[in-house]
Q: What sequence folds into this?
């Protein structure tokens, strides 16, 4: 039951309340009256139990979003674009329904930079997406910037790399023996623990500068194959075989190959200076050292 005092709290709408959103709910329940958008009625009970008021609507159905108008003053947009095309229709539907809000934080992806050849990347680097998935994210950022400017909304954008947690590790991939690139062909990857990301999302909403992009990334400087090796060692699994890129292209899926074709190291200076974030898991090694048992089935990022 919602207590009377909750009606006097600022209203927060979470759009895309999946794994990270559920980790976020305990952090915001005491500060806000929280509404959580879901397209699945069967999730309403879990959302209520976590302290949110469920709102059943679908970002792919603009008519269902009418109830969002004026619902909340603060918004967290964690929902991914639809899986096809180069425009993010879901974000367009959302902003058309929201009207004016005071603050909005959006969780984007580091994939907007494309391949950077292993260079250190700061938030000022121009975007250069190489696939439709990343182009949709660039489109979403541009739509939100224009909408925020027109409506006087304080917008913060987080660019997020690979999300991991105890139940979000590539164990199935390791058990199947999926190969990785040999060291001389390998790419740098970037990481953030899901619990840290939940806290960063809240900090972005509270402390983010207007229109500012921040990398939500830890201190890890690791190539993809080394990451797989570290997870394998932590769970006493065989390390993946290493192949030259020319051979690996013939045996992995196009989606996995796309992740193995972009190399960059994200700078997190803004995260620490502007959002004043303190990471519980500053690097992958710290998190793996604390894993006590075998996690559940790997979840998608």
A:
């Amino acid at each position: 039951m919602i207590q009377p005092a909750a009606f006097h709290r600022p209203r927060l709408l979470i759009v895309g309340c999946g794994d990270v959103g559920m980790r976020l709910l305990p952090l915001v329940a005491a500060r806000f009256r929280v509404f959580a958008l879901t397209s699945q009625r069967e999730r309403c009970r879990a959302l209520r139990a976590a302290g949110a008021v469920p709102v059943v609507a679908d970002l792919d159905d603009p008519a269902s979003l009418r109830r969002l108008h004026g619902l909340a003053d603060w918004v967290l947009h964690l929902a991914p674009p639809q899986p096809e095309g180069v425009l993010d229709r879901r974000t367009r539907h959302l902003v058309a329904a929201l009207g004016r809000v005071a603050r909005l934080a959006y969780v984007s992806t580091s994939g907007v930079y494309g391949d950077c050849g292993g260079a250190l990347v700061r938030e000022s680097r121009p975007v250069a997406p190489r696939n439709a998935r990343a182009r949709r994210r660039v489109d979403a950022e541009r739509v939100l910037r224009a909408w925020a400017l027109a409506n006087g909304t304080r917008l913060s954008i987080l660019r997020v790399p690979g999300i991991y947690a105890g139940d979000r590790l590539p164990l199935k991939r390791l058990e199947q023996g999926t190969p990785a690139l040999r060291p001389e062909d390998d790419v740098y990857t970037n990481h953030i623990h899901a619990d840290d990301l939940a806290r960063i999302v809240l900090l972005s909403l509270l402390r983010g500068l207007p229109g500012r992009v921040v990398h939500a990334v830890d201190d890890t400087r690791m190539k993809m194959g080394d990451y797989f090796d570290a997870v394998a060692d932590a769970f006493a699994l065989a390390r993946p075989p290493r192949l030259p890129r020319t051979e690996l292209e013939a045996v992995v899926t196009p989606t996995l190959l796309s992740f193995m074709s972009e190399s960059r190291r994200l700078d997190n200076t803004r995260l620490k200076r502007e959002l004043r974030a303190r990471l519980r898991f500053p690097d992958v090694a710290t998190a793996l050292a604390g894993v006590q048992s075998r996690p559940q089935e790997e979840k998608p990022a």
Q: What stands out?
A: The domain at 4-164+191-221+265-283 is CATH 3.40.50.720 (Rossmann fold). The radius of gyration is 20 Å. The longest strand covers residues 103-109. The CA atoms of residues 281 and 287 lie 6 Å apart.
